[in-house]
Design brief:
The protein is α/β, with parallel strands linked by helices. It has one domain: Rossmann fold, CATH 3.40.50.150. The longest helix is centred in the middle third of the chain and has 35 residues. It starts with a helix and ends with a strand. GO terms for molecular function: rRNA (adenine-N6-)-methyltransferase activity. This is Methyltransferase-like protein. InterPro entries: rRNA_MeTrfase/Polyamine_Synth (IPR051720), SAM-dependent_MTases_sf (IPR029063).
Amino acid sequence: MIKLKQFESILQQVKDFEEPKIKYEQYCTNSHLASHILYNIATKFGFEEKSVIDLGCGTGMLTIGCSILGANQILSVEIDPNALEIAKENISDLIFEDSSNSEEEDGDEEEEDGVEEEEQEQEEEEEEEEQEQEQEQEQEQKEEQNSENEEQKVIKEIISLDDITLVECDVFKLTQKEIIEIYGEDIRFDCAILNPPFGTKIKGVDVKFVTKALEFIKPGGSVFSFHKTTTRKFLIKHFTNMGYNVDVLFQVKFDLPKSYKFHRKKNVEIMVDILHITKK
């Protein structure tokens, strides 16, 4: 396994959110914490040759860490297209040095007609104007239809980067049906790695993230999730009552830097539990 110092050095290069969105409680896990947390999990449980799902992957910090530590199949889900684009860049830069981005080429057809007589030219111009108007109307109808279809689609975009698949999708709308759509088969994951919103803006969202992750885990699989220590008793009771084992792997001090205009302090330190949740 890679040395911890080298591992942290790689994660230091992961780009943060350019414009974090408060409604998603977007904070990038700093490289020091991410490297030590993942390294500890890898030492105790291992990521080697395992499949991992990262819900709310942000700019890819945990995804990249799991990949470096040996995970051979990772599904990273993120609702924010801007964050997902940064994650794509981070993964391409830090893991796949020779990766090339596919580009879509659009061909525009141009028609040029040489006509000598002025009357014929005028007639053709009028016909072309009518055709253009019809085409514009058709295009508007298609765009409206596409917009309606896009709103109905759960998965907005799929980006495959070797063993890592990035998906733009609302985590809570993701089901096993979409997993089958992505991979072409019904698969479950060995583990989930989550740094969910703490629930500061939306009460209970942290619980919903873990509950959703448990849907996609194999029997005997694990969910590793980050939560404020102040919620420890509630979370242990909640998931124990649901039939799961809950262990506190360790406790860390999160240093949250000033990310939003309304923040008054340069940084805030909070205690965070790394929970390990498995089926009984």
